[in-house]
Design goal:
Alpha-Beta Plaits; 4-stranded antiparallel beta sheet; elongated
């Protein structure tokens, strides 16, 4: 990124020394501004993130390309084909939601520039260039249509296949919640928010009560139903910003984002209420659970939070049995 800005700065200097046109200098300056803006927005990152790349592409597309259009021949120059590269990056780098906004805006920008070029040629009665422009634009928008088709069909199918494979690797097949493979990444993201924005997070450990005894009495199939029911009730009882994982066996882990310590019991009460509703509906067996939690602000580092939450959960389990 820095080397790119240096290279463009050198280009501006050479353009000035060689007495290039003002628009040529603006062309280099536009590219410099795009890279400079991206650098300052993401200067804290060790590497340029995908978000940074997307922002850079937006700057480049909507600032640099229009300038470049008028410098290098408009429709008949190289800019329309260079913009195909930009469209390809947008199609691959942006999420589906952002693609629906950015790509139509960018195609509209190119269309407006094209209409301006066609109108100019009509005003100057240049029929030969007008024919070339129309043929070029027909080829250009045909290539755009092919690009969109490839993106929505072939690459879309590959994305769905990857997402299905990826979800299968991080989700627990029995309960449908996440498995332990995604835990480290979730804690890392929560820790970044805690350090940068002071957003506290809580790790909760939950263990199904008397699961072994239930399996011995009713069979493992019934025990699986118990685990599924608890997993479903936890998922419904937490917010969209929170996560639930099957930690192993009869244990679940919940990561609660930005929740006061006194409100954690409200979450437990909500899950208890959902489990009671399930029992009232099915009238088969009640599901109860032991719980323990650790909040990030209690500790100097997140290293032992899971172990401490687990320890507190077992303390809760044994104290409940003694009662």
């Amino acid at each position: 990124m820095v080397l790119g800005m240096v290279a463009i700065a050198v280009g501006i200097f050479i353009a000035v020394v060689m007495q290039a046109t003002t628009l040529s200098i603006l062309s280099y300056a536009g590219g410099f501004v795009c890279m400079l803006a991206t650098y300052f927005l993401h200067r804290k990152d060790e590497e340029l993130s995908a978000k940074g790349v997307c922002i850079s592409v937006i700057y480049f597309a909507f600032i640099y390309i229009p300038i470049d259009w008028y410098i290098y021949g408009g429709v008949l120059g190289s800019t329309p084909y260079a913009s195909l590269i930009i469209l390809t990056i947008m199609a691959l780098a942006f999420s589906k939601k952002k693609r629906k906004i950015v790509i139509p805006l960018y195609v509209s920008l190119i269309l407006l520039l094209s209409i301006h070029s066609i109108t100019t040629e009509i005003l100057f009665y240049n029929s030969e260039r007008l024919s070339e422009i129309i043929i070029t634009m027909a080829a250009y928008y045909t290539l755009i249509a092919i690009l969109i088709y490839i993106r929505t069909t072939m690459l879309g199918s590959l994305e769905k296949h990857y997402r299905k494979t990826f979800d299968g690797s991080i989700k627990d097949t029995l309960t449908g919640v996440l498995n332990r493979r995604g835990l480290d990444e979730l804690i890392l993201q929560a820790e970044i928010k805690y350090l940068e924005k002071n957003l506290d997070y809580t790790i909760v450990m939950i263990d199904v009560d008397m699961l072994k005894e239930h399996n011995d009495k009713h069979g493992h199939t019934s025990g699986d139903v118990m685990l599924k029911r608890l997993g479903a009730c936890i998922t419904r009882g937490i917010r969209d910003a929170d996560y639930v994982l099957r930690y192993g066996g009869d244990e679940f882990l919940i990561l609660l984002q930005s929740i006061p310590k006194e409100n954690v019991d409200i979450v437990f009460g909500r899950i208890d209420g959902l489990l009671q509703n399930e029992y009232n509906t099915h009238r088969d067996f009640e599901v109860s659970f032991s719980r323990g939690f650790a909040q990030r602000s209690e500790f100097d580092s997140p290293d032992n939070m899971v172990e401490i939450a687990d320890k507190r959960m077992y303390e809760n389990k044994y104290s409940s049995r003694e009662k």
